[in-house]
């Protein structure tokens, strides 16, 4: 895992240094600085993710390759488009509830 800190967004809440003091330090005004090059050891991943998720201004971002599910293949003439509609019968499949 690799992270980046945008100091121009940081508002000095200090939450990052509280959760992951080995990766973030605070200057005299309380603004965060990244310690090191942003590489996070696997053992520290949870603490750094907590800092990332708890940052109120989202100044910390995770760098790297995201994996997305493969897109559905396009419809052919033989496919029925009504099979892919979201209906009450298949609401659990689509993840919506009333």
From the spread of the alpha carbons, the general shape counts as elongated
- Please indicate the percent range of residues in DSSP E strands (runs of 2 or more): 5-15%
Q: Low-confidence parts, pLDDT < 50 over ≥5 residues?
A: none
Major sheet size, sense and barrel closure: 2 strands, antiparallel
Oligomer: single chain
Order of helices and strands: EHEEHEH
- By secondary-structure content and strand pairing, the structural class works out as alpha+beta
The CATH topology label of the domain at 2-63 is: Alpha-Beta Plaits
End-to-end CA span = 38 Å
Main β-sheet, spatial strand arrangement? 1-4
CATH class of the domain at 2-63 reads: Alpha Beta
Radius of gyration: 21 Å
Strand segment count: 4
Mean pLDDT: 84
Counting H and I runs of at least 4 residues, what is the number of helices? 3
- Estimate the helix proportion, in percent: 10-25%
Q: Which architecture of the domain at 2-63 per CATH? A: 2-Layer Sandwich
Structure description:
- The longest helix is centred in the middle third of the chain and has 10 residues, at 45-54.
- It is elongated, with a radius of gyration of 21 Å.
- Helices cover 19% and strands 14% of the residues.
- A two-stranded antiparallel ribbon has the order 1-4. Strands 2-3 form a two-stranded antiparallel sheet.
- It has 3 helices and 4 strands.
- It starts with a strand and ends with a helix.
- It is of the alpha+beta class and 98 residues long.
- The chain has a domain at 2-63: Alpha-Beta Plaits.
